[in-house]
Amino acid sequence: MMFKRCLLILALALGLICNSFAENKPAKESDQQISDFSLAGYGDKGKKSWDISGKSADIFDNLIKLKDVTGNMYGEKENINLVADKGDFDKAEGKVHLEENVVITTTGGAKMTTDSLDWDRKKKLVTTEDIVKISRDNMITVAKGATGEPNLNKITLEKDVQVDILPAAEKNPQDKGKDKIIITCDGPLEIDYAKNIATFKNNVKVNTQDNLIYSDIMDVYFVKSGANDNQEPSPAPAAMGAMGANIQKIVARGNVKIVRGENVSYSEEAVYTALDKRIVLTGKPKLIIYSTEGISASFGN
């Protein structure tokens, strides 16, 4: 019995020693360490299609760990630049993971900032689960989680979305922020800048100067840069950076509720046109008016 107890104590002691060695075992060192690392890819006719560089690099088998990362993608119509404090480049998969102070800027005028980002070169896709901020023209979008094209022309914001649309110009400084429009939703928000449309989903709320609009789903059409306000949105893709910051119309669908002062309207669908600030309700519209005398009136089905 005593002999078995001694064997048990010896086994436990050996186990503790092994664990101690395992905890203190140094991480695998890189195969090579270099400064001013750069790598590039070329497409048809020898034209450069992408490049990535860093001030220093630790090179492993298929992984390169970079510091002060800069990446570029070169397209026919616009270029994309990505920067971050550090990143990992998978040579076999062609994927890049960026962390800390990640910024995407495009020659089309878009800018996105976040804490981390995965860039898949082959699929031409960027994704993140962190909070993102996208600035383009006079529209600022903040959300948690995003998936989209690196040029940010088509992107899905996953949840907790807020979009601030600022007026293009104000004649009177005292009117600053007066015509600002704020749109929020639980998400997702799907933005197609080429087609000048954004689709908000789940618990959508629009806060304008005169109205509050609620719905399940909302399509927001934007005026193409340089177009007249009464021009219809083009169904075909426009030039890069085509989406302007001015709203052309809003189409709200599902459990629509509109609050204007003390008056409340309900319908299945509503269309708001920014040019004349007119709202048309369809699908069992109902209007409730509250008077100053405390008498309420209801119209509709």
What is the strand and helix layout of this fold?
Elements (H helix, E strand, L loop, with lengths): L1 H22 L8 E11 L5 E12 L3 E12 L4 E12 L4 E12 L3 E11 L4 E12 L2 E10 L5 E12 L15 E5 L3 E4 L4 E11 L4 E13 L18 E18 L2 E11 L4 E5 L3 E5 L5 E5 L1
Antiparallel strand pairs: 1-2, 2-3, 3-4, 4-5, 5-6, 6-7, 7-8, 8-9, 9-10, 9-11, 10-12, 11-12, 12-13, 13-14, 14-15, 15-16, 15-17, 17-18
* Total of helices: 1
CATH homologous superfamily assignment of the domain at 30-122: Lipopolysaccharide (LPS) transport protein A like domain
Regions with little confidence, pLDDT below 50 for 5+ residues: 1-27, 227-244, 293-299
Order of helices and strands: HEEEEEEEEEEEEEEEEEE
Helix content: under 10%
Write structural notes for this entry.
A hairpin with a 3-residue loop joins strand 5 and strand 6 (about 110-120). The chain has one helix spanning about 1-25, and strands spanning about 30-40, 50-60, 65-75, 80-90, 95-105, 110-120, 125-135, 140-150, 155-165, 180-185, 190, 195-205, 210-225, 245-260, 265-275, 280, 285-290, 295-300. The protein is about 5% helix and about 60% strand. With about 300 residues, it is mostly beta strands. The protein contains 1 helix and 18 strands. It has an 18-stranded antiparallel β-sheet that branches. The chain has a domain at about 30-120: Lipopolysaccharide (LPS) transport protein A like domain (lipopolysaccharide transport protein A fold).
